[in-house]
């Protein structure tokens, strides 16, 4: 089994806030002691941190659930509960984090040590010391802790490389990578020898350096899932320059120019913006018979079919086996990299506009529906949050919750919908009778 994994779906759950406490001062010589219950502690966040030592998402194959600790409950003497520690989850450089439900991108983690909170912990519930008023100096009210955020995430690793090697299987990409870098990819005289992306660092004779990724061979129909399909096409999205490796000897019986057109078509079909990246054509296997003649034919066809207003891509004849022409290729690649800017990987429509972790102020406070058993069902982020944070073991808290519902207009809305005295009203698993 390959130890390379570049996609994963996981669930994260931030810690709940600790419950507030109901307590009173009971010292012997302190008359009319008053409330003394402290607040609960904050729940732990779930935080992604980039670790440059990681190369794949393999750690997420078997561990798909990440849950932070909840905050401590409030204590007597007005003491607050301890806040929970954040849960740190390490991810490799180049990890894109997407909300699995909405499809929106939360963050793109590319810098070593970069942090991002993917799930926020709930705040602690207030103790009864917070609810004391001149009218009610000894309240028996406390709040439950706020639930921590829970969400499902889609992780996608796109390796960080300046240059990407693309081309049909067995055109010599892995051999080229092994010659120009210290990488040791698997090399074999059969298709799809490379089944995972390989990464290596190149240093030119003039001192420039850049990262090169050798991507598994593409074939016709790859953008629709043929062969290795789109499994590794995502890794070329971060590159700034593409080295299009072509077997100029036509040893596989294919036409080099047709190969060039097919691979570009697959890149365009996968993501039109990949065609914005400058390409250098690498005419490989020039040590083989017929390669020189095939190169002449290739250049002629390229010139005939290229838009006269566009600049023809550079072509470098090389032989990975004999190391012919490599220094010129690497110098030209470094020069092209120096003048090629970073490409925007995602547009604004793909990004989550704002990381907001409470209820939406513009959304309706509640919604009313009817269940199969004729019960009225109340839902809505704001209402459900109030419900979860209400301590129903305390009568005063229940009265306060009923007052909050009335203030939100729930009673009037139920009457308008036809609710009558004694009708069943349901919030989650909690049921009560409507009193008109």
Automatic annotation (TrEMBL):
Enzyme Commission number(s) from the entry: 3.6.5.-
CDD domains (UniProt xref): Obg
Keywords: Cytoplasm, GTP-binding, Hydrolase, Magnesium, Metal-binding, Nucleotide-binding
Binding site for Mg(2+): 174, 194
InterPro entries named among the record's database cross-references: G_OBG, GTP-bd, GTP-bd_Obg/CgtA, GTP-bd_prot_GTP1/OBG_C_sf, GTP1-OBG_CS, GTP1_OBG_dom, GTP1_OBG_dom_sf, OBG_GTPase
Subunit architecture: Monomer.
Record-stated family: Belongs to the TRAFAC class OBG-HflX-like GTPase superfamily. OBG GTPase family.
Protein name: GTPase Obg
The species this protein was found in: Streptococcus intermedius
Gene: obg
